[in-house]
Write a structure and sequence with these properties.
This protein is of the alpha/beta class. It has one domain: Alpha/Beta hydrolase fold, catalytic domain (Rossmann fold, 3-Layer(aba) Sandwich), CATH 3.40.50. It is built from 9 helices and 8 strands. The longest helix is centred in the last third of the chain and has 16 residues. The two termini are about 30 Å apart.
Length: about 250
């Protein structure tokens, strides 16, 4: 599915549909394709917004979880969105958490799936030599329960990023920032309804991470999806979207 990316000053984003805002935050190697089933399901009931996070556009000093969260703050302010349902996968979940902790007033609900913020297995200590396609292919496949989900198109997308030396440096900076930025002591401050949807076979942010989020975030509900890895909205979109839909419908209007 090809989507029109809007440009407004320094912001690039997708915006489709009408209704309350459902804002999706992608991860470190995320792209709009990660959310295509989710966008198609909810564009009929919500205004679905996907800001493209400037993973490679910030200066190295601000290439961090807090730097990305600041970008999201400014985007929301610029667009004047209210009553936002915020959903983040992986690093996007972490960015969403930092935003909610600083600016809870415009967020109506939070959904996390495979989120960092407590613990994650990063790309590994041995970051690939640029141009190591097989390494990237294997790492991408490990994101999923079913390695067949790592299509050539997806692997090529990730490989293209890792061919660029500056982008690799920024990926490492973001991965290290995510590990340093541990939110364990602050999560009890989150008072909005929170949904946790986790792959039971997630090896990047394993199931115990979801249990810990559930324990620390007061008004949270946790659902595990069996035979599913780090990106449930891609791997089992039907079940993921049903859980999200039920959650959104259960919220006070």
């Amino acid at each position: 599915m090809d989507y029109e990316i809007k440009k407004d000053g320094k912001f690039e984003y997708l915006e489709v549909g009408e209704g309350e805002v459902l804002m999706l935050l992608h991860g470190l190697f995320g792209a709009l394709s990660n959310f295509s089933d989710l966008i198609e399901r909810f564009r009929t009931t919500h205004k679905v917004v996907v800001p493209l996070l400037p993973l490679f556009d910030l200066d190295i000093l601000h290439t961090s979880v807090t730097g990305l969260a600041k970008h999201v703050d400014q985007f929301i302010e610029h667009k004047g969105y209210e009553h936002i349902h915020l959903l983040g996968n992986s690093l996007g979940g972490h960015v969403g958490l930092v935003h909610v902790l600083k600016h809870p007033e415009k967020i109506k609900s939070l959904t996390l799936t495979g989120s960092s913020g407590l613990f994650e297995n990063a790309m590994g200590d041995s970051y690939p030599k640029r141009g190591d396609y097989d390494y990237i292919k294997n790492k991408t496949a490990q994101t999923f329960y079913d390695p067949a989900m790592a299509t050539k198109e997806l692997v090529d997308e990730v490989f293209e990023i890792t061919k660029n030396r500056l982008k690799v440096i920024k990926i490492i900076a973001l991965a290290k920032s995510a590990i340093r930025n541990n939110l364990g002591e602050e999560l009890n401050q989150i008072q909005i309804p929170t949904l946790l949807i986790w792959g039971k076979n997630d090896t990047v942010t394993p199931p115990f991470v979801a249990e810990e989020f559930h324990k620390l975030i007061p008004h949270s509900k946790l659902y595990f999806i069996d035979k599913c890895g780090h990106a449930p909205m891609m791997e089992v979109p039907g079940e993921f979207n049903d859980l999200l839909d039920n959650f959104l419908q259960s919220l006070p209007k």
